[in-house]
Each structure stands twice: as structure tokens, then as C-alpha cells.
Write a structure and sequence with these properties.
This protein is mainly alpha-helical. The chain folds into 3 domains: 99 residues, GIY-YIG endonuclease (3-Layer(aba) Sandwich), CATH 3.40.1440; 38 residues, no CATH class; 41 residues. Helix content is 47%, strand content 11%. The protein contains 7 helices and 3 strands, in the order ββαβαααααα. It has a 3-stranded antiparallel sheet. β1 and β2 form a beta hairpin. It is extended. The N terminus is likely disordered.
Length: 183
């Protein structure tokens, strides 16, 4: 698989070299999406290729057409749109709703996130700076801002949650203060 520079918007396929089973997907940036697929579809066992390049406005329609024509065996959802149309079985829903995460697992999850800044994940400071520079000048539309405002106005934050958020923010400020004064 040779990745090119530039963002290809379109429909792509990933095929199992051994048995010919396929996955079909769509993306506004196919190369970036392929990187996200590498864990599930390793390059040594799968062949990647672009089926069509198209404008973003017709992306979902083109993906649905490809799903209908090719009937890929590795797609979980029958409809285009990132899982839209996929329904969990009642058994799966029951299992998910009753799931409890143990204290030990929560501690491991918390430890794994230590040091991560919001939005940066496990990226280096240099990578975060490059991402921030690339996003400079990108603004949400007034419609998007209004939708976010409505969603946030309907959020209910309990006093207990507010206290935990306050403690977490104080800890972040303290870490930031130590980092800026350490160097």
C-alpha cells in the first residue's frame, strides 16, 4: 500500500488476500482512514485500494451504491454512514446496559490516560502543536455553534460531578504550573 500526500475523498475497499472477503468504506481523507484500519486489517494480509474519488456531498450515496453492488462480507452495517442502520440484538443491548466496570479496571483506564491533554491523546507536544497550527482559522458555522449550545444547555451536572470536575481542573492547573516553572 502506497500512501500519497493530499486528501482523497471517496470510496475505498480493503480485501483479504487469502480469501477475497472485502470491506468497503468511505472517507473525506482515505489515507488517514486507512491508518485507522491497520489494526483490524494489517497490510500484510489485506490489499487496500480506492474505488472512486468523489465530492463529499455524494460520498454516502456512492458508498451505499458500492455496498449494494459489491456486498462486502466484512462490513458489519448494511447501510452507509458509519454504523447508521446497524442494530444490536436485544441480548447485546442487555449485556451492555448491565455492564459494571471494576475498580481495578477503572484504575488501569485512569493510569493509561495520565498525562494526556484533552484532544491530544498520546501525541507528542510537537504533534499537538502541528495539529493546532493546521486547525488555525477553522471555525464552526453558526448553525453548528447553535446545535452545540442547545446540547450543552440540556446537560444536567450534579453537585457531585461538579465537585469532581473542579478537583480535576485544579489538578490540571497544578500540573501545568509545575511544567512551566520546572524548565
Amino acid at each position: 500500500m502506497k500512501l500519497q500526500t493530499g486528501a482523497d475523498c471517496g470510496i475505498y475497499a480493503i480485501e483479504n488476500i487469502a480469501d477475497g472477503r472485502r470491506y468497503v468504506g468511505s472517507s473525506r481523507n482515505i489515507q488517514r482512514r486507512w491508518y485507522a484500519h491497520h489494526r483490524r486489517f494489517p497490510v500484510a494480509k489485506y490489499r487496500y485500494w480506492i474505488l472512486y474519488r468523489c465530492e463529499q456531498e455524494i460520498l454516502r450515496a456512492m458508498e451505499q451504491m458500492s455496498l449494494d453492488l459489491l456486498r462486502p462480507e466484512l462490513n458489519k452495517a448494511p447501510r452507509a454512514g458509519g454504523g447508521a442502520g446497524y442494530c444490536h440484538t436485544p441480548e447485546a443491548m442487555a449485556k451492555m446496559s448491565g455492564r459494571m466496570i471494576s475498580t481495578e479496571t477503572r484504575a488501569k483506564m485512569s493510569l493509561a490516560q495520565l498525562g494526556n491533554k484533552k484532544g491530544c491523546g498520546n501525541r507528542s507536544h510537537e504533534t499537538c502543536a502541528r495539529i493546532a497550527a493546521a486547525r488555525l482559522g477553522c471555525h464552526l458555522s453558526s448553525e453548528a455553534r447553535a446545535k452545540i449550545g442547545v446540547a450543552n444547555s440540556q446537560r444536567v451536572v450534579t453537585p457531585e460531578t461538579r465537585a469532581r470536575m473542579s478537583i480535576a481542573q485544579a489538578a490540571r492547573w497544578e500540573r501545568e504550573r509545575r511544567l512551566t516553572h520546572a524548565g
